[in-house]
């Protein structure tokens, strides 16, 4: 136990923790996944549903996960086991989701590194959308090159996780997160002042209610879980790094707030540019990589901003990928007794291999499609829209009905030292509203219940 604590380390300040936890939340989910998922699911309709679901599960589950983590000082499987041993399998589900998510996350992380290299070599002087689209497709369809970058991204993740998360990540998060934010605001201003940008704003913010259907609702729920890093125990793990004096309640509000602002701002960078340059908002996973270079080409010092921006995107992706790998690694360390170094390297290698089909599915294996989606989209769908919400549902039921809301509240109030005015609200949310909400979306999506 002692030994484990030492390896786990602790965040040294509240600000450091909130930034590191926001670092886990803010990542490709906000910058890459949110804009294209919103684009593919009706824009404003999706954003509206996203907000409703965020209200129901954002704070509720964030606080739930943090409370379990800090109460047990363990990562997911250990945490469930310690609180009620026969429920450790819920943690197993989270670890499985971690494997799936990191496998494709690292592929996209690799694309980011490729684009950073492009930016450094000044490749962004192209304004023609069609050409930018082609450059991107050519790259991802190549069988080998994206795999090399996928490997580089995974290697970077490994290096950070081996070094131990707390100090390094905390320190870098404090600098990089605010820089990312400033950069996004600058880009947003550029995007919003492009000709025809308002079409993009309208598309993102004005809901067309007729577009809301079961598919959109499921996509929005998956996006909330993915973006907030909820449902697989990431926040249990991060909560386990916290000392007993920290205020979990305010953190559980701040992290979703920061994450949501970044997602919206990213949407206001990408979608106005999509409309201004005449791209298709339903353009899918390539949206970030095709529209942003177009925006940079229209900016003074665009080449410089491009480099800065892709560095920050890479950093945002890494502060998330390490939190995913950390969940998987701490499972091997806690449950299998492997050394940290061995677990990190071995598991990352396994996940790298698991990511290969997602990468090849863009080109060589693009004929391999299930449910109208390519391999990467299917892995993403399974992990984000099924595993994470299922993990979240089980966690609500576990906290609400097995571990007990009173014990969770005792933990988050630091044993009665902090006041928790939202106590009644949170109790009702975690016991009833959130689980019923998640079940409802699942029922919709599987066609059991017609809206
Ligand atoms: N939230 C991260 C992002 O938005 C991804 C993530 C998902 C991280 C699940 C941890 C767990 O990029």
UniProtKB/TrEMBL annotation:
Primary location class: membrane
Localization, per the record, is: Membrane
Chain ranges passing through the membrane? 12-32, 44-66, 87-113, 147-166, 178-197, 217-236, 257-279, 304-333, 345-366, 386-404, 425-445
GO (cellular component) term, any one: membrane
> Per its UniProt record, what CDD domains does this chain match?
SLC6sbd_Tyt1-Like
The topology of this chain with respect to the membrane is: Multi-pass membrane protein
The Gene Ontology terms for molecular function here are: symporter activity
Q: Which domain of life is it from?
A: Bacteria
Can the keyword Transport be found in this entry's annotation?
yes
Which keywords belong to this entry?
Membrane, Symport, Transmembrane, Transmembrane helix, Transport
Report the family membership: Belongs to the sodium:neurotransmitter symporter (SNF) (TC 2.A.22) family.
| Entry protein name | Transporter
Report the source organism. Answer: Proteiniclasticum ruminis
């Amino acid at each position: 136990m002692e030994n484990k604590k030492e390896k786990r380390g602790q965040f040294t300040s509240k600000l450091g923790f909130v930034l590191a936890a926001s670092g886990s939340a803010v990542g490709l989910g906000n910058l890459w996944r949110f804009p294209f998922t919103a684009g593919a699911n009706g824009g404003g309709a999706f954003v509206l549903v996203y907000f409703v679901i965020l209200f129901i599960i954002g704070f509720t589950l964030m606080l739930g996960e943090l409370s379990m983590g800090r109460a047990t000082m363990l990562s997911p499987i250990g945490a469930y086991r310690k609180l009620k041993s026969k429920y450790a399998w819920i943690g197993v589900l989270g670890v499985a989701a971690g494997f799936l998510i990191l496998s494709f996350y690292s592929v996209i992380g690799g694309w980011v590194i490729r684009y950073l290299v492009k930016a450094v070599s000044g490749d962004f002087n192209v304004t023609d959308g069609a050409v930018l689209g082609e450059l991107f497709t050519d790259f991802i369809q190549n069988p080998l090159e994206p795999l090399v970058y996928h490997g580089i991204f995974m290697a970077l993740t490994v290096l950070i996780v081996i070094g131990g998360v707390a100090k390094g990540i905390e320190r870098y998060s404090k600098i990089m997160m605010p820089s990312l934010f400033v950069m996004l605001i600058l880009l947003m201003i550029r995007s919003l002042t492009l000709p025809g940008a308002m079409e993009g704003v309208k598309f993102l913010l004005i809901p067309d209610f007729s577009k809301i259907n079961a598919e959109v609702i499921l996509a929005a729920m998956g996006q909330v879980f993915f973006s907030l890093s909820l449902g697989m125990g990431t926040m249990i793990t991060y909560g386990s790094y916290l000392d007993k004096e920290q205020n979990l309640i305010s953190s559980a509000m701040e992290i979703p707030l920061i994450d949501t602002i970044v997602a919206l701002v990213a949407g206001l960078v990408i979608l106005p540019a999509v409309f201004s340059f005449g791209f298709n908002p339903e353009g899918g996973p390539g949206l970030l990589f095709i529209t942003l270079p177009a925006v940079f080409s229209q900016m003074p010092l665009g080449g410089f901003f491009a480099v800065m921006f892709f560095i920050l995107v890479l950093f945002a992706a890494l502060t998330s990928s390490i939190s995913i790998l950390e969940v998987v690694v701490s499972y091997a360390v806690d449950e299998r007794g492997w050394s940290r170094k061995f677990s990190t390297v071995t598991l990352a290698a396994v996940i790298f291999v698991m990511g290969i089909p997602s990468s090849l599915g863009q080109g060589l294996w693009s004929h391999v499609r299930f449910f109208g989606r390519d391999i990467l989209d299917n892995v993403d769908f399974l992990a984000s829209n099924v595993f994470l919400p299922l993990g979240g549902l089980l966690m609500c039921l576990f906290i609400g009905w097995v571990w007990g809301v009173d014990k969770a509240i005792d933990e988050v109030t630091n044993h009665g030292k902090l006041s928790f005015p939202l106590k009644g609200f949170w109790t009702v949310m975690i016991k009833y509203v959130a689980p019923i909400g998640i079940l409802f979306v699942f029922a919709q999506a599987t066609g059991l219940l017609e809206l």
